[in-house]
Write a structure and sequence with these properties.
The structure is a single chain. By secondary structure, the chain is an alpha+beta fold. The chain contains five helices and nine strands; from the N terminus they run αββββαββαααβββ. Strands 1, 2, 3, 4, 5, 6, 7, 8 and 9 form a nine-stranded antiparallel beta sheet that branches. α4 packs across α5.
Length: about 210
Amino acid sequence: MAVDISSLRNEYTRSSLDVDSVEDSPIDQFGKWFEESQKLEILEPNAMILATSDSKGRVTQRTVLLKAFDDNGFVFFTNYGSEKANQISQNPHVSLLFQWLPLERQIIITGTVTKTSRTESEVYFKSRPYNSQLGAWASQQSQEVPSREYLENLISKLKLTYPEGEVPLPDFWGGYRVAPLSMEFWQGRPSRLHDRIMYSKSGNTWTTKRLSP
């Protein structure tokens, strides 16, 4: 029997958004909203849903963590043998979603992906905690493993191979940068008349427009 949850709803009244009030650059607008999410102490405001698809249009999603952003794009790190990496190699067009419910906001980004330089990946890898560095070596991401114990045994062996401070960057691990082509800023409003401001890129120029809710 289906569970009826049709009565679940909230009125969004926290804020508003207009074309005349946003920054000229969507990166600056993102930075403004991101700073506000940090001040509100939202849990992991850098968590973003990454949607990828393969050459046949089959879509998968997962949550990854944003580690840097600037005018060139949004950076995350992962295993280059993972399902997401395999799909990116087939289709570099992806979507990112940030959802900050306490602020009644979400940001949808579409763009194309390229790998970061090995130097950039290495700088970030060296900043990771020791156990996270070992975890990158132990995990053949998206591949089947026999048990949790199997992974824990791998970590124990890796600790003997790589002392703390001497863990090298794996060849199969590194960063991706999503260069945005569109960025939509969504602000919840009463009666489902939400504010949606869309930035679209043409060449090096961004234009803005309001979308119907």
